[in-house]
Amino acid sequence: VLNLELQDRLQVELRWIDWLLEHKRNELALEKLTALASELTEMPVILERLARVALQQGRADEAIRAQMQLVGLSSDSDKLSRVCTLFDMCEKLDRPAMAQSELEQAYRDNPENREIVRRLTRLYEKTEAHVELAQLLIATASAESNTELVAESLVRAAQLVKTASPERAMEYLEQAEQLHPNVPAELELGRHHHSQGRMEKAVEFYSLVANSADARYTQERAIANFELAQLHLGVEQLAEAHEALNRSEEHTSELQ
């Protein structure tokens, strides 16, 4: 709790800073705020204003540093809100990785919070942290009751890690195969089996996509038929390849 003398001084300092801002003396206001924040290190009202003014002045590092201090000072009740504000600021300044530590800690403490999960997903996407994003997808999918969505998450996770960890990608895809996957997942499973030389399984999944009646997946049907044609050509099944290629062209024309 601030004593009265300090409260009075703080009010005077903030009024002076407001006057400077009102009269476009922004650099001097920022200088005063920085000095005040250095002296009174646990005052959210100062840090909030410092973050805002530094951001307006294009001083990204100072704005982010002030917002980080606010996260450190926040109570349990408003920490999540502070972390979200920090990430939003870092994302706006094209520095999303600067919020990674705070965002990951918030996720560990609140793994079911959708706002934190959504922002952590964006962070990993923007920083191309493929393995971490795959792990996040798997973790969030474990709480999902819709098996189609779980299969979709498993397939996407497999796509993310297939270069760094092909064995893990195979594991994810095989799990997805047990969950009645939707059309995009079936297409990826067809590709997976094709790449592993399991031609019968590849044909099975490509055919599931090619024969889908779901109007949302015309593009996937065109792709599946084209890749199925390539598979047939590879084993010199020319009639089957020709038929699949014709179907691919028909679906492609539907998209135009």
Structural account:
The chain is mainly alpha-helical and 256 residues long. Helix content is 78%, strand content 0%. It contains 14 helices and no strands. The protein is elongated, with a radius of gyration of 27 Å. It starts with a helix and ends with a helix.
Flag low-confidence runs.
none
Major sheet, described briefly? none
Q: Strand pairing plus helix content: what structural class?
A: mainly alpha
Q: What's the rounded overall pLDDT mean? A: 89
| Outline type | elongated
Helix content: over 70%
Distance between the termini: 68 Å
By DSSP (H or I, 4+ residues per run), the number of helices equals 14
How much of the polypeptide forms β-strand, as a percent range?
under 5%
The counted number of beta strands is: 0
Radius of gyration equals: 27 Å
Instruction: Write the H/E string, N to C.
Output: HHHHHHHHHHHHHH
Secondary structure: elements and pairs:
Blueprint: H1 4-22, H2 26-39, H3 44-56, H4 60-73, H5 76-92, H6 100-109, H7 114-126, H8 130-141, H9 147-161, H10 166-177, H11 183-195, H12 199-210, H13 218-234, H14 238-255
What key attributes describe this structure?
mainly alpha; 256 residues; 0% strand; elongated
